[in-house]
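Lecture notes, structural biology module. Today: joint structure prediction for complexes of two components.
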Amino acid sequence: MKDMNAQTPLVEIKGLEKRFDLDHGFLETLKFRDGRIRRETRAVHAVNNVTMDVNRGEALCVVGESGCGKSTVARLVAGLLTPTSGEIHYDGNRIDDKSRSEMQPLRKKIQMIFQNPYASLNPRMTIRQALEEPVRHHYPSFSTAEVRDKVTEVMMSVGVDPSWAKRYPHEFSGGQRQRIAIARALTVDPEFIIADEPISALDVSIQAQVLNLMLEAKESRGLTYLFITHDLSVVEHFGTRVAVLYLGSVCETADTATLFSHPKHPYTRALLSAVPQLKDDRPNHIRLKGEIPTPINMPQGCPFQSRCAFANNRCRSEKPKAIHQPDGSLVACHAVEEDRLEQDVIGA
Amino acid sequence: MSLLSVRDLTVKFAMRDETVTALNGISFDVAKGERLGIVGESGAGKSITGFSLMNLISRPGYVDRGEILFDGEDVVKMSDKRLRELRGDKMAMIFQDPMVTLNPVLTIGQQMIETLLAHRKLSREEARQIAIVKLREVYIPSPEERLDQYPHELSGGMRQRIIIAIALLLDPQLIIADEPTTALDVTIQADIMELLLELCQSNKVGLILITHDLGVVSQMTERTLVMYAGRIIEAGRTREIINDPQHPYTQGLINALPQQTLPGQKLRQIPGNMPSLTNIPPGCPFNPRCEYATDLCRTRLPEIAQYGQVQVACHEVQRLQAEGERQEQKA
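The predicted structure, tokenised, for the full assembly:
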């Protein structure tokens, strides 16, 4: 069994669904329609049948635009939300149905970094208190000196001077706070880090510092990342594999290099073409018609059909399944499956 | 003659303990129909620059010295009445967050017609017709219906289009756009930028685009100012600045982008943070983060001066240029 560990993914997500009910309580569910009172519950379909694996040592990036459900996926995997249906397996064990106390030993292995370092650190705790708390919690046998040593070591490794430990979060800049938030995740020696837009709130020069730090930690500690972001240039740099999410469904999963050189799904192509390029003064982006539909009344068929230039009747009635492509990517698109996309677009 | 001419603009904020200099002797020009980008990180002073052009700096901030000549008239010395005529009419501003800019309790139509009636002698019906034309120009589907909708009924991209339509209502000569797409998704950002570019070009409207995104500046503007700690440290044609930046900070900013490094490699980061405005180091404000800093940089402020194609505020720029050329010759 030990040998198999190398091949089995660290995290397996199978058919994950999450719905948020909009109508709570009996009275809210009553609607008046066609002259009669009916009971109806509306729900936001945040995540729909998402299946993906995170292999050991890789950085899987989940990209998509606001409202596509990428943060919900992160929170589901971290156990901060309970899925409506589907399974999440960690290291071969199912974790989404575990109780809080059963999850306890796993919490040490799975840590999360959030977007806003101004909100994720308790303003009334010093940095030392904030960093020591998780160590004391997960290693109750540690002596005070051991806890302190551990925290000092991690602070050094993320480039935060240990002599600053007595300070409060408001005394630090955004970039330093994000370092501290990363340090807090690293103090318990996790193996899997879920990072939800960890650099989006930071300035360009600081983004590079934090991204370098996360890459370094990946190398030196053998970390596996689930990295949620909307910034495709960061994905290209940081990710080993990418999953593109649209309206709660995965459109395309591929190795980073493959995705950027040969995007297949019409949405992935539009997304890539929209990134403003430095050296290219002739922007040539693929304009999408319409806007992202709300995830309340999900359209039948492919979630992207209302904006897709290649949609036909099949797209409007049948939801496409993810199909393996020759280059190893997984694409959920009828047009790709039927080879209806112009080849020259792929080449360009 | 240039449409806008800013000379030695200095803006200060009187705080309880001390006076902070947010803008320090900024000078630049915008020609008629020209598109100028202002880039920098948070705290560089780019938004303050935008606000002061419309004389929107309010207490505790004040313009300490310098002049802002718009069509030959100094905005700083204008009366409130003259300013009201200018704002919206000759100069319009687009802000980052479309939800905050639009009034949530007025319909789109009320807000657009109100603007028109405040500046022009029109009947309500004429104003309504102009509003519909402008909404159509920014590709709003079924504009007649949108006029009766409230901002919350529209998506973020749609709201930002309406803001652009409002900015264009009175055919201004200059639009100041302060991070107009930062709150939007990339696909919507691309749409809005394309639209803004198209409208500026077809109506010969000048644009000042304030952003932190070098990619956006590169695609949208003809000239660029790079700001750091309240000063312009590099200015010139956008192409020159992006392809061959001279100031070490501009170089650092461009090199720090993930696109500039091979995937998985360490990014070339700029060490340290932007200084806080209460504690700007002596000499060149960038010197503590600069790998080329000398004793001169630590003691004397470099003046902005012309070097080749661009203006740069750096003592070491000639040495760096010479070294760059030597390396090129070797290679």
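Point to remember: The first helix of chain B runs from residue 46 to 53.
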